[in-house]
Write a structure and sequence with these properties.
The complex is a heterodimer. Chain A is an alpha/beta fold. Helix content of chain A is 26%, strand content 18%. Chain A folds into 2 domains: 324 residues, FAD/NAD(P)-binding domain; 174 residues, Cholesterol Oxidase, domain 2 (2-Layer Sandwich). Classes of the chains: A alpha/beta, B mainly alpha.
């Protein structure tokens, strides 16, 4: 396909899908190119059920070439998609039509106003070139597009985050254990901060919405929702195609080619499933391939990097968790993996010296620490059987409860993706990952654990609360950000406040790659808001030329 | 009809019945899915060594069958016996859907039913991830079988 379009969108995750849909509704000709395949939901669920290990990539492992798939790359020693330096990066993502929203959890809090002004307020990090209020109406639209369930009165004005509209759907109901914890913490504070349990805003239906059913509590949100009650971006890809967008799946853009004099991106060279190379041109090119792939393509193309910031400022949220055996049954493993949290520590003057964090109350027992199948094996191998086995299994399980913390990371140029010496089948260097969190983040999550201890003490538990033994241990949150950050200064940023490349007038980058700071919010809603804002900008730009 | 010790291939139905009755005892679940039972037996029998071990276990089971407390009788019969490990494999298969091999679970490549039909979930008052069968918000309340 070598004909021109108005816009080429590279990457069919939530940003690319929303952007393509909105532009098509305005009548613009859009070509959406996605490296990965279309996913069949039933096949994905079946693959999940038959997987020996239920990892985030387990439903998708049969879809295409493992050497080209980043999912599980950080956690499976047999996978080599990431080339890891001595500072390994621990989060993964999906390359597929719909992107990482296939395996995401679905939590969609907004960033708070201070997240956009870290340098001004706290003397750390950088400021965004736009404010929370610049994005507020787009947050509201994103919540409608994705279908977000939440409790407006809990979130309106929280930490300064004004909400102009209510949530499209009422909240996802709290779990049984959420209510126990809420009661145990009633009236309690920690360091003068009230320990208020809030219903987490979720892109998950609390009623039939947008042609999708209400959540039935399948509990397999990560890695796949069998019924699409949890939003995934294949929804908007389909909507875009229904409106006439062209989709090339299983097609990898291998290079963006600039005009040597003007810097205008003339188009994209791509490789199809049959390995033939083609070229597509358009007036505008949008790169929405997530934080690692977007940087990879720009680095390989040798463009958009006069700032030397492409690939740098790689951020993720650092996750740690702790768990207990409560004195009372908590009845875990029912409902979404988390339905409530404590957001009171997501902002404050303490951010001058330590990271903010968000706490999630788990509905999945002790998370990774206690695999149910391992408990079954352990009891069986002890010789238990029959009623004694069943009673022991239940007794060991129904009191499990965990809290997770997700701590912010500051942008550091040394945290980056670079180009490995080994190339993939299309000749693009694999990503070489460098990621070393600093004392700022470590201080944040260690403080979070003192809060978690207070919460556990309020609930009551048997034996001891279990925390990570090693202070430097953390896991990735799957919130990959920062590698093409936005900013007003072309010397220190890749794109401007409208996601336009400082170096190429018709090249835009959108997604979590453009985040200058991480905040503590799961990034997807902000990604969606930025995509909708960009769609409006591009519509006006196309209409005026 | 009492089941005798030999299980020639022509008596697979009898073998299946013995396996089901053994499984009811060791899982403490009386209503077992017969399709799963058939598949589990086939899975266990696909390895000659495991098949031989299983047949020995079924013979031990038959000696316990008919006791006032069959579960206790079986437990005593397996105490100190290497067949206790075979019983553990059967138990784990029913409760997880995976065959325990060298400390790891091996799920059938193309059949999701062992996973979805695993007894683990109902035993803990939950459901298999990916198949709740529940209504919106059921997680707010105690399980129906608590």
């Amino acid at each position: 396909m070598g004909e021109s379009h108005d816009v080429i969108v590279i990457g069919a995750g939530v940003a690319g899908a929303l952007l393509t849909y909105r532009l098509r509704r305005k009548g613009h000709r859009v070509l959406l190119i996605e490296s990965g395949p279309v996913i069949d939901r039933l096949e994905a669920v079946k693959a999940y059920a038959t997987a020996d290990e239920k990892t985030p990539g387990s439903p998708y492992r049969k879809l295409w070439n493992a050497a080209m798939r980043p999912d599980d790359a950080a956690t499976d020693p047999g996978r080599t998609y990431y080339r890891q330096s001595n500072d390994p990066f621990k989060s993964t993502y999906q390359r597929a039509v719909g992107g990482s929203t296939w395996h995401w959890l679905g939590n969609v809090p907004r960033l708070v106003p201070s997240d956009f002004k870290m340098a001004t307020l706290y003397g750390v990090g950088v400021d965004w070139p736009l404010s929370y209020m610049d994005l507020e109406k787009w947050y509201a639209e994103a919540e409608i597009e994705l279908g977000v369930a939440g409790r407006h009165e809990q979130w309106d004005g929280l930490l300064g985050a004004y909400r102009s509209t209510p949530f499209p759907m009422s909240e996802i109901w709290p779990s049984y254990s959420d209510l126990l914890v809420e009661e145990a913490l009633r009236g309690k504070s920690f360091d003068g901060v009230r320990l208020e349990v809030l219903r987490t805003p979720q892109a998950r239906n609390s009623r039939p919405y947008d042609g999708r059913p209400a959540c039935a509590g399948n509990s397999s949100c990560v890695p796949v929702c069998p019924i699409q009650a949890k939003y995934d971006a294949s929804l908007h890809v389909q909507k875009a195609m229904d409106h006439g967008a062209d989709l090339l799946a299983n097609t990898t853009v291998v290079r963006l080619i600039p005009d040597s004099e003007s810097g205008v991106i003339t188009g994209a060279e791509y490789v199809g499933k049959d390995k033939t190379r083609s070229f597509a041109s358009a007036r505008l090119v949008v790169l929405s391939a997530h934080a690692i792939e977007s940087a990879r393509l720009l680095l390989h193309s040798g463009i958009a990097n006069s700032s030397d910031q492409v690939g740098r400022n790689l951020m993720d949220h650092l996750n740690r968790f702790a768990w207990i055996r409560a004195r009372t049954p908590m009845f875990p493993f029912r409902g979404p993996p988390t339905t409530s949290g404590i957001d009171a520590f997501r902002d404050g003057d303490f951010r001058r010296t330590r990271a903010a964090f968000r706490l999630s109350l788990g509905n999945d027992g002790a998370g990774r620490a206690v695999k149910l199948e391992s408990t079954v094996m352990e009891l069986a191998e002890k010789g238990l059987l029959g009623r004694a086995f069943r009673d022991a299994l239940r007794g060991k399980t129904e009191t499990l409860f965990r809290i997770s913390c997700s701590a912010e990371v500051l942008p550091r140029p040394s945290n980056r993706i670079a180009q490995a010496s080994v190339k993939d089948e299309n000749g693009i260097p694999f990503p070489l990952m460098h990621f070393r969190p600093d004392d700022y983040s470590r201080a944040g999550y260690l403080y979070a654990e003192t809060v978690m201890k207070r919460i556990f003490d309020s609930i009551g538990y048997e034996d001891a609360a279990k925390f990570e033994a090693d202070e430097s241990t953390f896991s990735g949150a799957g919130h990959i950000m920062g590698t093409c950050r936005m900013g007003s200064d072309p010397r220190t940023s890749v794109v401007d406040a409208n996601c336009r490349s400082h170096d190429h007038p018709n090249l835009f980058v959108v997604g979590s790659s453009v985040f200058p700071t991480s905040g503590t919010a799961n990034p997807t809603l902000t990604v969606a808001a930025l995509a909708l804002r960009l769609a409006s900008f591009l519509d006006r730009a196309l209409a005026s030329t | 009809m009492p089941i005798t010790g030999d299980f020639p291939s022509g008596h697979e139905t009898i073998r299946l019945r013995a396996f089901v009755e053994l499984s009811r005892c060791i899982t403490a679940v009386s209503e077992l899915d017969m399709n799963l039972a058939h598949n589990h037996l086939a899975h266990l029998s696909s390895d000659p060594k495991v098949r031989t071990d299983l047949d020995e276990l079924l013979t031990v089971w038959m000696s316990a069958q008919g006791s006032p407390d069959e579960e206790e009788a079986l437990r005593r019969a397996l105490n100190g016996s290497p067949l206790a490990q075979v019983a553990a494999v059967v138990l784990v298969l029913w409760y997880t859907g995976g065959l325990l091999v060298e400390g790891k679970l091996d799920y059938p490549e193309d059949d999701p039913e062992p996973y979805f039909g695993a007894l683990l979930w109902e035993a803990i008052g939950a459901h298999p991830p990916g198949q709740s069968g529940g209504y919106f918000g059921h997680w707010r309340y105690t399980p129906d079988n608590s």
